[in-house]
Amino acid sequence: MLNVARPVATEPALDRQEASIPAFASMFRSMLISASGAGAGVLFGVLAAKVVAVLGGPPATGALAAMQQVRQTATLAASFQGQMAVVRGIARGDSGEFIRTAALLMLAGSLVVGFALETGAGSPWGVRPVFPGALLLITLSSTAALFLGALLNGQGRISRLTLYQSSAPATLCLCAAVLFSLCPANSAEWKGQMTVLGSCLLGVFVGFLSLHGGGGVVPRGTWFDRRQAARFFRVSSAVAASAGIASASLLFVRGNLIRESGLAGAGLFDASWTIGTNALNLVLVSLQAYYLPELCRVGMAEQEHRLIRRFCAVVLSAAVPVLILTILSGQVLLSLFFSDQYAGAGASLTWILMGGYWKVSSWMLAVPVLARGAAGVVAVFDLVTHSVFAITAWLLSPVLGSLAAAGGAYALMYLLTFALVAAFMNGHLGFRPKRPLALVWAMGLACVMSCGLVHVTSGQAATAPGVAMWIAGSLLPAAATLACWRRL
Fold first, then answer.
1. Under DSSP, is residue 70 helix (H, G, I), strand (E, B) or coil?
2. pLDDT digit string (tens) for 286-329?
3. Are 296 and 421 in contact (CB under 8 A)?
4. Are 101 and 232 in contact (CB under 8 A)?
5. Which of 9, 27, 43, 254 has the fewest CB atoms within 10 Å distance of its CB?
6. Where are the domains of the chain?
């Protein structure tokens, strides 16, 4: 698949294709819509946790958290991490056989995983069905909700997808408020499990409403085709392997932190990890629902490359201010979301945010590789870079301390990821960034790295003039993007 070159457009053709490539305003509007949905989701998630904590106390919080973890794990296993394959298939205009085969495979996976949970597989997490079939229903409805979201994503219905994704924590909050206030005599385990079940069922209902008017939930075609199943597993297995590799490397680093610095050191790293990754996800989630389907729809090689350059410029323009602001307010965020006892996580948070720039850069180049169906290449890169992450954190622990070593290893991991993905894009897909994008990227790199290094080495909060200077500098990539838009 990688050796099949896309047709190259001539200059007059490129002028005609300009209208088919999303404009800056369109890209930015989509990002704001998705970001607002992600923000609403975070808000409802925090509100749901608050409702459970107030109405049920620590036992209820623990029961709901355990049930949510089981639901997430069961959904990942039942869906074979196949939502990206579904999104890609719909965006590329694949036949109805592929979508129906994917739906049937996810249904079969849900039945297998659900029956396994019913027969005791959830016991290690302290979860047992509160009535026969409860865990099976949760697995089926959660996987169905995931599939419906993938359909919306593949169809490019970003506004409806954003509302649908933000409705999940909203329904969780609603079910928690109703069950924990109206059923005080029931056990915490019962209320937690029924809250999750009610949220999943409502999610499926909202998903069908969101798909209304889009030509049906599943296109017409044969329900199962072996060749389409092989295509589905080619993408989904590589995505699942990448997720497994990332989880394994993080477990190794956390284990090393616990051995070297105890649970307190691991807690500091988790605090910096939570804030740093959420800041990045605010940017990445904002455009990933839009980026992959658009890449799958373009036909000409030069049109695809122009789309990549423009998406890169827009995302970098948004990412740099977010990263700079998070670096400058890191200690405040640690105290606000955790407590003053987490002040020691500041340096680790800064390293994670510096690595975040490399993560954003590599992610923007990795998505086109996934759009070409080369998920296995990304999985191999993940294996190499996450191994470097784990080994570097372990080797540097005696020199820098386990906490700083983990943060520095994270930055090194994504620097290496960017180098590998950029080399692959250049050598196999013929992608060239061109001077305007290189200028935007270099500006962003200089801003984030200089701010992070000054913050780490000084160990002091920036003065008011310094904050103003960094914030002004973080806007330079956006200004350059607007000025060079036609040449991207």
1. helix
2. 666 677 777 777 766 778 888 889 888 988 988 899 999 999 98
3. no
4. yes
5. 43
6. 26-224, 237-488
